[in-house]
Specification:
The protein has 228 residues and is of the alpha+beta class. The protein is built from six helices and twelve strands. It is elongated and about 55 Å long.
């Protein structure tokens, strides 16, 4: 199945729901062969379209990069939209998310709801949220954390929150009992405090609560669990 996704500029943080609506509105206005006007969107578009690997086959064959796109790349003045062919989807979705973060743009995948949001806080604190499906957000809101965790599944089975100093909290869907009402494996590491370990949590709500407290810098939630 081909994967559609869009990248665009927002002046302020957006919720996952707002990102989905914004995607549809902008997508309806998109045209071919016209670079975006906004400088960040233009820089993303320029980097995306200038990639031109050498052909890997006979003369006249499409390059690997050209075969990545199932349809032409389209744009609005602030947005870029693309459709990635199924064979390259997983790797290329991650590449696009990373490029969007580098250019400080929102990236949204409508099929999964995965949304990457750049850093709007611009403080010395940098808390990064990343998931297996490629979404990556800086200093996420509690609502965005919850939306990301609710996308956990046997195929999107990993989410991590980490600081720039080696501290992190991560969750994996248990292989033995996956699903919203199943078990989740939590792991955290705090090198400075010499704390960390692995525990099993039953239910997604408890997992979301742990991520909420961790994002606030409050480790009291860890005392509720037995760590190995």
């Amino acid at each position: 199945m081909n994967i559609e996704l869009g990248v665009w500029f927002e002046a302020a943080p957006v919720t996952d729901e707002r990102a989905a609506d914004r995607y549809q509105d902008l997508r309806a206005e998109a045209v071919e062969d016209v670079p975006p006007i906004h400088p960040r969107a233009w820089a993303f578009y320029n980097e995306l379209t200038r990639q031109d690997p050498a052909p890997d086959g006979a003369d006249g064959e499409a390059t690997v990069w050209q075969r990545t796109w199932a349809t032409d790349i389209t744009t609005t003045p602030v947005a870029v939209f693309m459709t990635i062919v199924a064979d390259d989807a997983d790797d290329m979705v991650r590449v696009v998310h990373e490029m969007a973060e580098r250019h400080e743009l929102v990236c949204h995948v409508p099929r999964t709801g995965a949304t990457s949001i750049p850093d709007y806080v611009r403080t010395g604190t940098r808390l990064v949220l990343a998931s297996c499906d490629g979404a990556r957000s800086v200093n996420p809101t509690p609502r965005h954390i919850a939306a990301t965790l609710r996308r956990l599944s046997p195929t999107n089975d990993f989410v991590m929150l980490w600081w720039g100093d080696g501290r992190y909290l991560q969750v994996e869907v248990s292989q033995w009992a996956p699903g919203e009402n199943g078990w989740y494996v939590l792991e955290y590491v705090d090198p400075d405090a010499g704390r960390g370990g692995v525990t099993m949590v039953r239910g997604l709500d408890d997992t979301i609560e742990a991520f909420y407290w961790y994002a606030r810098g409050d480790m009291s939630w860890a005392d509720r669990h037995v760590w190995q």
